[in-house]
Specification:
With 193 residues, the chain is mostly helical. The chain has a three-stranded antiparallel β-sheet.
């Protein structure tokens, strides 16, 4: 944290030219001593006393005028050496995480080749099974929509023709929506291949 200011040309000129003659001699001596040191660092405590003395003396100089061109001195913070135990522990953790990530990436890879007539047959069975389930789901959804609409429309329509027509319309809409979802799903599955 900053605790001093590197003196600028305006403050140096004020001390040399005697513009601060109205100040107490002890304060002027401390200022001159601080400016004479290497780097010309003036502590904040000295600046506070200088500010109070300028006010008491009724000087036309203000502290902000004297501080023009000054820079806040930020001392370098020493970096403590790293603990060797901590470094070793961090390396072990990094290695473990890298191993876990590698295992996660390679978990579905086996050393066995999946070629041959049985492997191909298994892939085909899985593909046909997925298609059969999808078609069955489509048929059940459309039939259920038709049945619900047919039975629910009896409270609205007295004639059977109107009930059948409304049930066909609703089943068609549900069927189209189901087809849209199926196409998007298949399109997504093909995109992953």
């Amino acid at each position: 944290m900053a605790s001093s200011v590197r003196a600028g040309p305006r403050l140096r000129r004020a001390v040399r030219a005697g513009e601060l003659a109205a100040l107490p001699a002890r304060l002027r001596d401390e200022l001159e001593k601080a400016l004479a040191e290497e780097g010309g660092l003036v502590p904040f405590s000295l600046l506070r006393r200088l500010h109070a003395a300028l006010r008491e003396a009724g000087s036309p100089l203000h502290l902000h005028e004297l501080l023009e061109g000054c820079e806040i001195h930020l001392p370098e913070v020493p970096v403590p050496p790293r603990n060797p135990e901590l470094v070793a522990r961090l390396e072990r953790i990094k290695a473990r995480l890298a191993h876990e990530e590698y295992q996660r990436m390679t978990r579905n890879i086996t050393g066995q080749e999946m070629n041959g007539p049985l492997a191909e047959f298994g892939r085909q069975v899985r593909s046909v099974k997925a298609v059969v389930i999808t078609v069955f789901n489509f048929i059940v959804t459309v039939v259920a929509a038709f049945a619900c609409t047919y039975l629910g429309s009896q409270y609205v329509f007295a004639e059977t023709a109107a009930r059948v027509l409304s049930a066909v319309i609703v089943a068609s809409v549900v069927g189209l929506a189901e087809l849209y979802v199926m196409v998007r799903t298949i399109e997504g599955d093909l995109g992953k291949l």
